Amino acid sequence: MRLVLPALAFSLLLTACSAPPVRYAAAPVASGDRIGISVSQLEVREVSLPTYAQSEEIWREAEGGALEADSSALWADDPARGVTMELSQHLAAFTGARVAAEPWPFEDLPQARLIVRVSEMVAGADGRFRLSGQYFVSRLSAGRDYSGTFNVSAPIAPDSGSSGIAAARAVAVRDLARQIASRGI
After folding, report:
1. What sign has the CA pseudo-torsion 28, 83, 137, 104?
2. If DSSP codes are grouped into helix, strand and coil, which group holds residue 89?
3. Structure pTM?
4. Nearest to 182 by CA among 103, 49, 129, 174
5. 119, 149 Cβ separation under 8 angstroms
6. How many domains does the structure of the chain reveal?
7. Using CA atoms, how far apart are residues 166 and 170, in angstroms rounded to an integer?
8. Which of 7, 33, 135, 140 lies 20 to 30 A from 102 at CA?
9. Domain region containing 171
10. Could you give the residue ranges of the DSSP H alpha helices within 58-160?
């Protein structure tokens, strides 16, 4: 019992002295030039992320390919929700269509639905933020369904840390939205 109380006190002291984690939001980036699409109403389903990327921690690729989480650097929003919202906002901005993340908030139904399944979302050891996976555009009205793969990346500013990773993620998600719109909606 004599050793337990000092050990417990020391443990609590260490916990109290550790700095709280810092949260990073994806920096806003301009959507860019207008892209015409064949629907005026698009629902974006919640983006599916790999298990590691579903957590709040910002993941980095170490030399040798191992993925490591930084518990002191967290995303400001749930990663799946954040990427879904970013995709929706960019698609709305450069298509002019009525775009919303699920659940569809309008009375009239969407004309198409976008499903994105991410297989990789990581700050690479090569200094690039990488997003890869597959997307599906399902027509709810007349038209052809479409699917495709994606592999987008954006540079992480040297020595920018987690804020640079968040900025690069924002650019990669914007580029993904542009790619999907120009190829499959």
Report:
1. negative
2. helix
3. 0.86
4. 174
5. no
6. 1
7. 6
8. 33
9. 4-184
10. 79-95
